[in-house]
Amino acid sequence: MDLKKRLIFSNAAIIVIPLGITFVASFIFMFVLARIHDVDLSYNNVKKLTQIQYEFFKAEGGLLKNSPEIILEKDFQQYITTRLESIEADIVVLKGQERVFETRKLSIIELERCLEKTGDNLFRNIVEIQGKSHMVKVIPVIFKSGEDGKILLLVPAVNDWMTTEKLFIFSGVVFVLSFIITNIVIITAFSKKVITPLGKLQAAAGKISEGNLDFEIIEDGDTQIRELCRSFEKMRLKLVEANYTQKKYDESRKMLFSSISHDLKTPITSIKGYVEGILDGVANTPQKVEKYLRTVHSKAVHMDRMIDDLLLYSRLDMHKVSFNFEKTDVLKYFEDCMYEIDIELEKSNIKVELHNNLRGKRYIMIDRDQVRRVVINIIDNSRKYMDKEQGKIDIFLREATSNVVIEIKDNGAGISESDLPYIFDRFYRADSARDTRKGSGLGLAIAKQIIEGHGGKIWAVSRMGEGTSVMISLKKYEG
Ligand SMILES: Nc1ncnc2c1ncn2[C@@H]1O[C@H](COP(=O)(O)OP(=O)(O)OP(=O)(O)O)[C@@H](O)[C@H]1O
Ligand SMILES: [Mg+2]
């Protein structure tokens, strides 16, 4: 249930339910008392009784009203006394202030109280006389002598045995009891649906703050509380994930250190070996010395490149490289790139071709130098892992609705299915590459960082022995 609805319902129920119970209980109480007092309180009976009384008042009232003197006649007095006795009624006739006929002696106060009840509704004209409720009817009359008079008719009220006082006390007690019970029930429900789940959440928060995430928060309670539980559970899962990422990050940092040390150690060891060879006189001819020195130089260049790559990768990884975005014409940009790489590749017997499938002039926002580095890294791979006599690299420029897709396809060695998912990971090198070609496994990791820094995507498809396609997707610039 909605928390707001529960509050509205609870507030309403606290009043409505006790009132309803009191109403029903009072009704039952009246019936039970009626049974105890052996009074048939069925609706028909009450109606009959009141009807007889009422009709009597009306009929007799009419008669008395027209010729009030008749009451002074002995015969009529006798007749009326017997009629009134049959329904336990009484009559008092006043001529001026004087009581000229009465079947019951009323005190002055009682008489006064009766005379005050001048209304027509008999049920309201109730007067307590000697501890019993009576219905009273006061009929003003004018005697033939011209004198004013009043005829007072009295009948015991049907519910005499049921004093308002008794009913009031009973209803009061029932109301208080049902109010207390309703409150207890509502508070119990409230506690079950709101307080208990909140308590559980509090306990969960305590556990989380102690770093214990190994539990589940079960949704319970009213809508809002359930939502709160859900958010809490989401938070817990996020924390679990963050912990996991942190752990993985720590592990990968350890891996990074070991890879760096390993990859730097290899050239340093060989540099050391060649330099010792020169110092120890193993290189005993100027030709040999030059050969050793050239090897040392090439190893040093490789190390230098590797350190540059490492520095760039870690700066990209920490988002410390700020890109200098420029609006760039895609076709023109790749034509320029081609011009740069063409000569280099010709030496390796690789033919490069640019295929423009763009439907017109298309622009992208890029840091030209950084994207050039990406293209060079990819093409450098195609060159490095080329195993065909006649190498071929095709660059396709295509477009989708909102992106420009650049495909760099070679006919080289290809990448095995098991290696393909990892080639963009730092330091990842397929075993075949590790054995035969120089490299640190950072080229594609750097490319990925740069492309993602441009809000783009990079991926590869490959078939062993047939070649590799590296795809770059960048957002079109429509401005
Ligand atoms: N065109 C390709 N053909 C075949 N294998 C490739 C190709 N491109 C990448 N690879 C595989 O993916 C691995 C990762 O490539 P990446 O460019 O990141 O590293 P690298 O070339 O080994 O080293 P670096 O680029 O740092 O000199 C390579 O070692 C190689 O196994
Ligand atoms: Mg590479």
Question: Would you give an account of this structure?
Answer:
The protein is rod-shaped. Helix 1 packs antiparallel against helix 5. The strands form three sheets. It has a five-stranded antiparallel sheet with strand order 2-1-5-4-3. A five-stranded mixed sheet has the order 7-9-10-12-11. A two-stranded antiparallel sheet has the order 6-8. About 1% of the residues have low confidence. Among the domains are: 121 residues, Beta-Lactamase; 62 residues, Orthogonal Bundle (Helix Hairpins), CATH 1.10.287; 150 residues, Heat Shock Protein 90 (2-Layer Sandwich), CATH 3.30.565. Helices cover 56% and strands 17% of the residues. It contains eleven helices and twelve strands. The structure holds adenosine-5'-triphosphate (ATP) and magnesium ion (MG). The site of adenosine-5'-triphosphate has 24 residues, from helix 9 and helix 11.
